[in-house]
Recover the amino acids of this structure.
């Protein structure tokens, strides 16, 4: 396992981090998730096909969104990569905290990460990003389930402002997007927000896995993730969307700051950066982080017992009393940081 077919130094990877001020960063991370819906009306399939390559990269945005929620200090030795060992494991497994959206030039994977990846036998992400059926599934889940339209759940002034924003910044009007769940519309803002075509760690990890002939699996299904976000009222999603529009410049600055903190691997600093935004979304934190973490750990245990596994999930899932690092330790595993 000593040989690994990866370029050294920087790699086309992805880390997504969202804007900083409340509630902006939440919009960015929640946005790219694709929720269950009804069949798309005529014309939607064409529109979706033109954007699916970009959107397919970010169904995992859940994890990215909760990159910060519930994030509390876990160790004086901060790291994004953690080694998992236990008496029932023949070989170590690894857990990597990702960010789901970033410009290619801002992405880098160290040789230590590449070596850890090559020492495992399967890749497990929040979702199975190598599942060919995901495209078909997403076509069914982008619209609001109750038949609502954006124009009907927003004040006329807000809708007109959003329409103009999309024309000016995204290069297209709302049009057929009017039935999209408001968080979905965030995906159309990412390129402008970042100033590039976003990439992600998950996509790069899948590329590595294919080169090594490794199986790719998911900790949960896209239907499950979609269901979580259908529990957030569409009207509230629309309000968050408008906050993003009105604080767009601030969001760009916040995103740049967050990326810098993420690269420092200082979990405490990341918490401090995001602390101001957490309280406002506490109710969603348990639903989006804690409950999912508790569900994932037994699945991770079975996967690790079968084969050495490389896990890639949003960094927000790692820290805190209910974070994966703490839960794995409570389950009897030794979890140690890997220097990057």
């Amino acid at each position: 396992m000593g040989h690994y077919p990866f370029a050294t130094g920087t790699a086309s990877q992805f880390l997504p981090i969202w804007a900083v001020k409340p509630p902006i960063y939440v919009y960015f991370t929640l946005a790219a998730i694709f929720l269950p819906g009804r069949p798309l009306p005529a014309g939607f399939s064409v529109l979706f096909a033109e954007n699916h390559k970009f959107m397919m990269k970010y169904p995992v945005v859940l994890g990215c969104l909760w990159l910060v929620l519930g994030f509390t200090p876990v160790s004086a030795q901060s790291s994004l990569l953690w080694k998992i060992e236990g008496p029932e494991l023949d070989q170590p497994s690894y857990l990597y905290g990702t960010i789901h959206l970033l410009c290619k030039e801002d992405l880098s994977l160290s040789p230590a990460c590449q070596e850890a990846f090559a020492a495992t036998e399967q890749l497990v992400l929040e979702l199975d990003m190598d599942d060919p059926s995901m495209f078909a599934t997403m076509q069914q889940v982008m619209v609001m389930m109750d038949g609502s339209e954006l124009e009907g759940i927003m004040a006329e002034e807000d809708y007109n402002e959003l329409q103009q924003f999309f024309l000016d910044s995204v290069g297209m009007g709302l049009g057929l997007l009017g039935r999209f769940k408001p968080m979905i519309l965030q995906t159309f803002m990412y390129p402008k927000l970042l100033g590039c075509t976003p990439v992600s760690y998950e996509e790069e990890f899948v590329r590595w896995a294919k080169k090594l002939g490794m199986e790719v699996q998911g900790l949960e299904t896209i239907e499950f993730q979609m269901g979580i976000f259908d529990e957030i009222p569409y009207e509230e999603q629309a309000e968050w969307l408008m906050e993003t529009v009105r604080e767009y410049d601030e969001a760009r600055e916040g995103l740049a700051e967050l990326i810098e903190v993420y690269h420092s691997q200082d979990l405490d600093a990341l918490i401090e950066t995001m602390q101001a935004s957490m309280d406002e979304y506490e109710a969603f934190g348990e639903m989006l982080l804690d409950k999912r973490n508790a569900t994932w750990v037994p699945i991770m245990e079975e996967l690790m017992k079968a084969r050495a596994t490389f896990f890639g999930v949003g960094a927000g899932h790692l820290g805190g009393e209910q974070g994966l690092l703490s839960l794995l330790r409570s389950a009897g595993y030794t979890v140690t940081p890997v220097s990057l």
